[in-house]
Amino acid sequence: MVFTEREVVIANDLPRILIADADTQMSQKLGNFLKERGFKTRVAVDASGCISFVQNWKPDFLIYDMMLPDLNALEFLKMVSRGKIKLPEGTAVTVISNHNAPENVNACLHAGANDFIVKPISNEEILSRLAFHMQKRKKVTAVAEDSDNRGDYFLYLTEMVLRKSLGKKKDVSEQIFDLLHMESMATHAVRCSLIEINEAELTGTVLRSSDDKDFSGFCIQLQKYPEITTVIKTKKPVAIEDLSGNKTMSEIKKDFKNISFNSLVVCPVFVHDELFGVVSARRKDNSPVLSDADIRFCQVTAHICGLLLQTSNPFAKQKPDQKKVA
């Protein structure tokens, strides 16, 4: 099993962004904001204009309104999947909408959208999403199909993690915390978290985090975390390089301190062959280059979390704290 990488090719560090929205005032405002920060932008007010730009201008990113009058986002995505509309290879599609109904978000993501953002769109949010989609994906290969000795290395890591985290009698919750804490130290992560997924409602609950043993029950809105929705859609790991070397985004980072450009790894957690959630590891500033060993360690952690939860799930009766929402 191979995780298919989608690498966005950025010519001269100037990504091309096409905005397709009938709201010309919002589109022009967003386009001007992005242009001032080093992006090339175009605006289309209808689907025919959008398709013309797609074919002739070849954008790296397409921001498409859910209810564009002559062709809504779902129909557009279906035409792309059927080959009736040809997107340039690597073009990332973000659907924007006035509503965040989970069924609409899920429908767009499953139809091929890379992201979904609810209006009104803040400047920081759009830059955060662009930062994620600009980051280079590393290819992640399943151990079972490796032709070299990496399978043995995976088994070695698994044994080491099991010995250290499960050596003393602890409940599953404590064992999972130990696993996450070990991963954060081994992979230079600022935080490693186990997050349970509610795909129908597009919410997640942070069950355990490596930086706080008592932290649990934090609720997140998944449409704000494209790295997690990507894992939900593909059921495969996502490994993202940082953007420290990109000139355009390094300038943006000076003005928007809250946007993360760090590398990250997100791996699915399966319980009884069903997707339970993810293990997410976001790395520290100036961490070493993301290595295969870092990715393997995250895969091991996710795999063992799934095995532990199959024996006992101490979080089953835990309800997310709706007062803690991100």
Topology:
Elements: E1 16-20, H1 24-36, E2 40-44, H2 47-56, E3 61-65, H3 73-81, E4 92-97, H4 102-111, E5 115-118, H5 123-134, H6 150-166, H7 172-186, E6 189-198, E7 203-209, E8 218-221, H8 226-234, E9 238-240, H9 247-255, E10 264-271, E11 274-283, H10 292-311, E12 321-325
Helix pairs in contact: 6-10, 7-10
Explain this structure to me?
With about 325 residues, the chain is α/β, with parallel strands linked by helices. It folds into two domains: about 10-135, Rossmann fold; about 145-325, GAF domain (Beta-Lactamase, 2-Layer Sandwich). About 40% of the residues lie in helices and about 20% in strands. The protein has ten helices and twelve strands. It has helices spanning about 25-35, 45-55, 75-80, 100-110, 125-135, 150-165, 170-185, 225-235, 245-255, 290-310; strands at about 15-20, 40-45, 60-65, 90-95, 115-120, 190-200, 205-210, 220, 240, 265-270, 275-285, 320-325. It has a seven-stranded mixed beta sheet, with helices on both faces. A five-stranded parallel beta sheet has the order 2-1-3-4-5, sandwiched between helices. Strand 1 (about 15-20), helix 1 and strand 2 (about 40-45) form a beta-alpha-beta unit.
